[in-house]
Amino acid sequence: MKDAPKVEVAPAKGRLGILIPGMGAVATTFIAGVLAVRKGIGQPIGSLTQMGTIRLGKRTENRVPMIKDFAPLSSLDDLYFGGWDIFEENMYESAVHAGVLDKNLLDDIRPEMEAIKPWKGVFSKDYVKKLDGSYVKTGGTKWDYAQMVMDDIKSFKDKNNLDRMVMVWCGSTEIFLKPEDVHQTLAAFEQGLKDDHPSIAPSMIYAYAAIKMGIPYANGAPNLSADIPALYELAKQTQTPITGKDFKTGQTLMKTILAPGLKARLLGISGWFSTNILGNRDGEVLDDPASFKTKEESKLSVLDQILQPEVYPDLYKDYYHKVRINYYPPRGDNKEGWDNIDIFGWLGYPMQIKIDFLCRDSILAAPIVLDLALFLDLAKRSGFSGIQEWLSFYWKSPMVLEGLYPEHDIFIQLMKLKNTLRYMMGEDQITHLGADYYEYYR
Predict the structure, then answer these.
(1) Is residue 438 a part of any domain in this protein?
(2) How far apart are CA 343 and CA 347, in angstroms?
(3) Structurally, how many domains does the chain consist of?
(4) Are 117 and 169 in contact (CB under 8 A)?
(5) What pTM did the predictor assign?
(6) Which of 90, 331, 413, 436 is the most exposed place for a label (fewest CB within 10 A)?
(7) CA 367, CA 213: separation in Å to the nearest integer?
(8) Distance spanning both ends of the chain, measured CA to CA
(9) Do 258 and 300 fall within a single domain?
């Protein structure tokens, strides 16, 4: 191995608190899953940090450790959970209400789930019109609510004797917002909090509170949230890693797997129609056009970046892309995504691909929450700050540095993630073009 630079990574000693705004289906599925794995009654399937491997060096060296053995990640035994919601149910009650996990499994971890009770959330129907919640913070400006959130965090840290914390937004999709003047600088944003500016949504209040305290922040929804210059400025000031947006779970996961393959074979696409039915709280929220607009922007951006129509005009310039989400209560959390893809091949002859993905949204999201929490904690201990583009693997709409386009090809994203881990630990990055390759074929 060459002398690769090694990042100074602080050890993962002590307790890691995971803060979650939005303690509904995704959060309870995640927490219950971690508790089940601890008890040996479940496996962390879908989690790169727990089940993934990483190749080191040349193929002939046969060094392929587990990622959790290679990088100094926090142990599942050292995780503590806390968060906010607009409903007062404890985590056991909320999980039963969500209906994602089997009740027999939940009963095996009931005492631990019941012990986790949410704090009152920051909420306004102006931003999520389809929800009503009575368990909310009242009596102040948005600045005051940010201070209340920080007080909750301090109490949680003291009560559980925590060493470090991360925050992962698992709340609902808010209405579509565009960056305005209030989002451009930290000074303008903080004044906007004090002035109750209407373009500062609840998720931004949580993001501000976390980043202000130096707590890494991940945005699991397509909300604007931390993706504004003011919070980039704060993240650099407090040396805080941030990442997002919108967990890549069902239909978009399939697109980022399939579209790179079609492009690799230079097969043309004339149309891609996607529709979903789901009946959970997310489906109800997205039944509002203003919230759906936020989600639609996230979903529609994926194909353009992968296919690069401007580079391959004969194959993709005029393709038609449509996305629909339909609220259907009987389906619950078991989302169904249908895709019709019209493609064409040699001499322009048409073909079709049909996908019917009967997925479980929260089951796919839960391991993402775990990985993001552990990787963000690792990033913080490695001295990283600002946008963590190496975590694009987990997002429908990855945050990127100004002037860059987001990478959506899931295979490139995974390579970037693993190469970042190699870089952190002083290993050579894998390019598949080593000197041994040239010697063999010369």
Answers:
(1) no
(2) 12
(3) 2
(4) no
(5) 0.92
(6) 436
(7) 25
(8) 22
(9) yes
> How many angstroms separate the most distant Cα atoms in the chain?
74
Residue 159 tokens, joined: 């009560």
Answer for the pair 302, 257: CB distance below 8 angstroms, yes or no: no
Is 350 found in the same domain as 260? yes
* HSE of 64, CA atoms in CB hemisphere, 13 A: 6
Indicate whether 168 belongs to any domain: yes
Neighbours of 148 (CB within 10 A): 20
Residue 431 located in a structural domain: no
Residue 401 burial (10 A CB sphere; 0-12, 13-18, 19+): exposed
Q: Where are the alpha helices (DSSP H) in 17-65?
A: 25-39, 48-51
Residue 321, phi then psi, degrees to nearest 5: -125, 125
205, two tokens:
């209040």
Structure tokens at 283: 């489906």
The H or E element that residue 403 is part of is none
Whether the Cβ atoms of residue 163 and residue 377 lie closer than 8 Å to each other? no
Residue 354 domain boundaries: 251-358
How many angstroms separate the Cα of 398 from the Cα of each of 14, 32, 221, 302, 401?
30, 27, 11, 10, 10
> Taking a C-beta distance cutoff of 8 angstroms, is the pair 409, 260 a contact?
yes
**DSSP 8-state assignment for residue 344:** E
Strand order in the sheet with 320-327: 320-327, 268-278, 336-344, 350-358
Token digits of residue 148:
């209340």
Does 334 share its domain with 372?
no
Contacts of 357 (CB under 8 A, 6+ apart): 250, 251, 254, 336, 337, 338, 339
pLDDT, one tens digit for every residue, the chain (442 residues): 445 557 899 999 999 999 999 999 999 999 999 999 999 999 999 999 999 999 999 999 999 999 999 999 999 999 999 999 999 999 999 999 999 999 999 999 999 999 999 999 999 999 998 888 889 999 899 999 999 999 999 999 999 999 999 999 999 999 999 999 999 999 999 999 999 999 999 999 999 999 999 999 999 999 999 999 999 999 999 999 999 999 999 889 999 999 999 999 999 999 999 998 887 666 667 666 766 666 566 567 789 999 999 999 999 999 999 988 888 888 877 888 999 999 999 999 999 999 999 999 999 999 999 999 999 999 999 999 999 999 999 999 999 988 899 999 999 999 999 999 999 999 999 987 665 555 555 5
- Structure tokens given for 376: 């963000």
Q: Cα–Cα distance between 393 and 397 in angstroms, integer?
A: 10
CB 240 within 8 Å of CB 265: no
